[in-house]
Design a protein that fits this description.
- It is a single chain.
- With about 475 residues, the chain is α/β, with parallel strands linked by helices.
- It has two domains: about 10-165 and about 330-400, FAD/NAD(P)-binding domain; about 170-325, Elongation Factor Tu (Ef-tu), domain 3, CATH 2.40.30.
- It is about 30% helix and about 15% strand.
- The chain has helices at about 20-30, 70-80, 85-90, 105-120, 150-160, 210-220, 245-250, 300-310, 335, 360-380, 390-405, 445-470; strands spanning about 10-15, 35-40, 60-65, 95, 100-105, 120-125, 140, 165-170, 175, 185, 205-210, 275-280, 290, 320, 325-330, 350.
- Helix 1 (about 20-30) runs parallel beside helix 10 (about 360-380), helix 2 (about 70-80) runs parallel beside helix 10 (about 360-380) and helix 3 packs across helix 4.
- The two termini are about 35 Å apart.
- The structure holds flavin-adenine dinucleotide (FAD).
């Protein structure tokens, strides 16, 4: 039964997870009625255990709550400024976890479910939506997450094209460019190939001698790994093997695969041929992030940091994200969605949450928040103003809808991979903004990096407040 008391026609939100619940809340708070379709109660997923909205399927942590120098903490703060239901329910159900925001998962989900049920403009329908929204649902948001039910996934695939919907992610670690030691590494494309949009110097190359290579292979093979859950299946296919599985197939496999040294000359030591080379490729348009080519992995996070810092030039690498392979339904958003998360081929139909290619509870909810606001503004005939790129909202949105770059040397190959929010997605500060504070003696590497984070965080919150007020 509809609880609509507004003059607007309803917006349909499909999926009552982190993103869909937040989207529904934002739409309703803007005075527009919502019909929220959630299948749990009628049909479950392989990971959810309850019928509650916004169920946390695994960890109970929303990660760092430090809004002064951590990107996810900044995202928390921006969501609070925007009246987020997810953050309100998280704050009300917090459990002790140091500087992280962790929650009582049942209390959190109950609070979201109760707030949605009590909102006069939201009606919840327990049903599986089996195809793309019918045309009469003129404004709709799909927020069905990493475990989107198969019939709907098939319809999305039919609309977007077979290559545009992935069922697994295969994520190679991503490194902050400024933490790569360029006294050891050098820029060069293999055989100096320029390609359609390159310069011949598009990759960062890390050289290894024979001894270093064998020590690295030993560490890869010995490193702690995570397994697949039974329901995930084993998604290995030859173009996408975890790096450690390749290493297990033979000591030289990687030297003839992703670590081949051919066509590369060490700019610091041109006469000595590297035994193997690890290549990193630019990952975002800003050039602040590079991904390790072919290094998708099931190594545990702790082991990854340890093993990958054995690579010459990456000894002090900081990782914007570590690698992984998971069951995950997500679309190729940079080509499919416009800047307000609308499917270019279906005006009025938006995507939100993890299915757009963000990763994690907080990021998914934040993209739900934006999709909800955009949809409500569209229904009310208001201008759709995207958050500034300097905010955490804007940085994540830009990654999803366009900041990620497609590799020129692999035309047609999709390389968009899910991403957590991190400072590498934010535009650099204005030159001269990072000045030595008065009275501080040492202001180099670590101190400078800390100051940079703090200034980026402060700029984000300032610009977010201005965006919300404007
Ligand atoms: C096994 C697993 C473990 C994870 N662990 C973590 C973790 O520890 N920390 C973390 O931050 N992130 C984790 N994630 C990622 C996490 O799931 C997402 O970050 C977050 O839940 C995504 O929010 P969402 O709203 O996009 O999707 P979800 O929260 O999954 O919500 C999607 C909703 O849509 C519903 N739905 C699906 N299809 C239909 C349909 N056809 N009709 C109607 N309803 C439908 C589902 O029932 C679900 O309620 C994990 C994911 C998986 C699969």
């Amino acid at each position: 039964m509809s609880k609509d008391t507004s003059s607007h026609s309803p917006i349909h939100v499909i999926g009552g997870g982190l993103a869909g619940s937040e989207a529904a809340w934002q739409i309703a708070e803007a005075g527009v009625p919502v019909i929220l379709h959630e299948m749990r109660g009628v049909r479950g997923t392989d990971a959810h255990k309850t019928d509650g909205l916004a169920e946390l399927v695994c960890s109970n942590s929303f990660r760092s709550d430090d809004a002064t120098s951590n990107a996810v903490g900044v995202l928390h703060a921006e969501m609070r400024l925007a009246g987020s239901l997810i953050m309100k329910a998280a704050d009300a159900n917090q459990v002790p976890a140091g500087s992280a925001l962790a929650v009582d998962r049942d209390g959190f989900s109950d609070a979201v479910t109760a707030a949605i049920a009590a909102h006069p403009l939201i009606s919840v329908v327990r049903e599986e939506v089996r195809g793309l929204p019918p045309r009469e649902w003129d404004l709709a948001v799909i927020a069905t997450g990493p475990l989107t039910a198969p019939d709907l996934a098939e319809s999305i695939r039919a609309e977007t094209g077979a290559d545009a919907l992935a069922f697994f992610d295969a994520i190679a670690p991503i490194v902050y460019t400024e933490t790569i030691d360029m006294d050891i590494c050098w820029y060069q494309s293999r055989y100096d190939k320029v390609g359609p949009g390159g310069t011949g110097k598009d990759y960062i190359n890390c050289p290894m001698n024979e001894e270093q290579y064998h020590a690295f292979i030993d560490a890869l093979v010995a490193g702690d790994k995570t397994g697949f859950k039974e329901w995930e299946g084993t998604p290995y296919f030859d173009g996408c093997l975890p790096i450690e599985v390749m290493a297990e197939r033979g000591r030289e496999t990687l030297r003839y695969g992703p670590m081949k040294p051919m066509g590369l000359t060490n700019a610091h030591n041109p006469t000595v041929k590297a035994y193997a080379v690890v290549q990193l490729r630019q990952d975002n348009a800003l050039g602040t992030l590079y991904n390790m080519v072919g290094f998708q992995t099931k190594l545990k996070y702790g082991a990854q940091a340890e093993v990958f810092r054995m690579i010459p030039g990456l000894e002090n690498a900081e990782f914007a994200r570590l690698g992984g392979l998971h069951r995950n339904t997500y679309i190729n958003s940079p080509t499919l969605l416009d800047g307000t998360l609308t499917l270019k081929s279906r005006p009025g139909l938006r995507f939100a949450g993890q299915i757009t290619g963000c990763e994690g509870y907080v990021e998914s909810a934040s993209i739900g928040l934006l999709a909800g606001r955009f949809a409500a503004a569209e229904r009310k005939g208001q201008a759709l103003t995207a958050p500034p790129a300097t905010t955490a909202f804007g940085a994540l949105l830009n990654h999803i809808t366009g900041g990620h770059i497609v590799s020129d040397d692999e035309p047609g190959k999709r390389s968009f991979q899910p991403m957590n929010v991190n400072f590498g997605l934010f535009p650099p500060l204005d030159p001269g903004a990072i000045t030595k504070p008065e009275g501080v003696k040492r202001f180099r590497g670590k101190e400078k990096a800390a100051a940079k984070k703090q200034l980026t965080a402060a700029r984000a919150l300032n610009d977010c407040a201005a965006w919300l007020n404007g």
